[in-house]
Structures are given as structure tokens and as C-alpha cells.
Amino acid sequence: MDDDCSNPPTASDEKDFPMSMSSVRDAMKTVMKPFASRQANQEPVVWDDSDDYSTGNGPRGIALVVINETFRGHKGRTGSELDAQNLCRTFSLLGFEVRLVKDCTLNEFKQMLEQVAKEDHSSAGCFVLAISSHGDELLQDRKSALLNRKVREDVVFCTDFYMSTRELVLYFSDTNCPTLKGKPRLFFLQACRGGSLDEGQEVKVIMSPQSQAGQDEVDAPELPEVVVSPAPCFKDFLIMCATPPGYYAFRRPTDGSWFVQALCSVLENCDGSRDVLQMLTRVINIVAQEYESCVPLNPDNDKKKQTPCIYSMLTKDVYWKVTQQPGKILSWQ
Prior knowledge:
- By secondary structure, the protein is α/β, with parallel strands linked by helices.
- 24% of the residues lie in helices and 20% in strands.
- The protein contains six helices and 13 strands.
- The strands form three sheets. Strands 12-9-7-3-1-2-13 form a seven-stranded mixed β-sheet, with helices on one face.
- A hairpin with a 4-residue loop joins β4 (135-143) and β5.
- α2 (80-93) packs parallel to α5 (258-267).
- It is globular and about 65 Å long.
- It starts with 20 loop residues before the first helix and ends with a strand.
- Residues 1-19, 198-213 and 222-230 have low confidence and may be disordered.
């Protein structure tokens, strides 16, 4: 920036000269000495039940499962019905009241999210939203008086249009859904987040039978570019995506999505001994090591890998356990 001649330098202005390494070391000793003293006097961290979210003896909560298979003027998602079956079964076994939504338009999706957010969740332990659909992550030129940059935002597609994940999660913020305040809200998103492919690295793994057969597809739409910006992750939120920013998410028409298969397989073994973040880390490991795309007729998509990712702002541990009385599975009306 050019100097402003109306505010000339005064005697108080100084230049920031670089420090020598010896000066840096001396400064670090001065800073670290009291810090080390404080550490020595600190009591060891003790874990107790206060470090866990309290789910109480009431209902687990609502698990909203959204499956979009058909799209107006665009390729469908064969195998997504298997995602619906897997997700509904898994969250029912964990004690959730499952509400299944299929092939909704954008307006229907908004109305549904608004209605669920306005419900009284006071007795619930947590909330889950799982989506299996087409998706993308695109760049936007963000220009203002101070900024001129490109910004990314994830979008998921309804049957007729798209919604940003930013807008989606906002429905369940503390402000818009106050009865979920202080409770964990977990989002599982099976959708592409761009058009890149992961070549993977050669490692020694035991390949599952599912990783060696079938014709894999990607959850990327053949749709025009949209304007996008980044999605937030609030306190007490966890967002798990099937793939990192910019990458495809694979789905096998005969078995369903890689991510959903692994997620359901792991969660159905919840016994309350490990917190959910540990379980989800296992999901990442399974998808990354045991799956590889099989699309011999399309070499560009063949023998590719996928790695789910987690964005967590949970402030405590979440423990789930398969229940003796599965929750209800309802179709959205």
C-alpha cells in the first residue's frame, strides 16, 4: 500500500529488523521458562463421565436419511437404494428414530429440514443427518473492497436443484434449533466434492471381495457450474464426508456407496466401549485400504482410491451402542 502523506512518520515509528538466531533462542528461553514451570505444577488430566455427552435414558434422537436416486435430465444413481437400506438399518439398531426421505425436490428438502429443526429435541441425546446423493465442490470468485479470491463450497443435489452444505447445516445451529443446543449433531455426506481422482499408494493390504468386483460409479452430476462458498462446522457438530475436497466419491451399483458400506459395517459393531470418533477413524481406514475402483471400460476412473474425511467440533465424546429395541423406521410424508 502507498504511504499516506497526510500521516507522516513520527518519532514513535520504528522498523521491524530481523532478529539473529541467538536473539531468538534467548527470547524463547525467556518465554518457555515460566511456561515449563506452570506445566510442572499442573495436575494430570483425569477423564470422567463429564467428558461424555449425556444421552440419558431417553430416546437416542432422530436420524434423518436422505437418498436421491433420480434427477431431472441427469444420470440416476443405481445402488442408492442399498444405501437407504443400510443407513436405515444401522441407525435403527443404534436406537434412533429413522426418517427416510427419497427423491426430494429442493423445496421439499427445505420444508423438511425446517420442520425437523422446529421440533422439540429436548429429550433426545443427539441428531443425525445422512445424505446419499450427487454432489460437487466448485470455486467462486469472492470480490469485495478488501478481498479478491476464489472460495470453495460443497453442494448436494436434490432431484431438481442443489443446496449448499452451508445452508444445510445452518438449519440445526443453536440459533435455528435451540432444543439441540449442547447436543452432538452428526452429518454424514455421501456425495462427490469435485472431479479429481486419487491414484493411491502401493501398500500391503488384505483386499475385501467387494473391492475387486463390480463396476464402480461416481456421485458427480453432469450439471452446469454453480456459485459456491465454504461450509461451516459449529460447536458440537461433526461433519463426515465420503471424500476430501475436490475429489470423487465412488458407488457400486450392486453394493451401494463405499463410504456408506464401511460406515454401517463399523457402526453396527458399536458396543459402547469406543467413542464415535474412534469408530469413524476405522471407517476411514477401511475405505482407504480395502476399496479400489473397478471400471475397466473407463481407464481414467479405474483402480482409483478414496479417503473419507472428518470435520469435528465436538467438545465431548459420543458413545453409541446397538440396542435391544431398534428404533422405528418411518417414511417421510
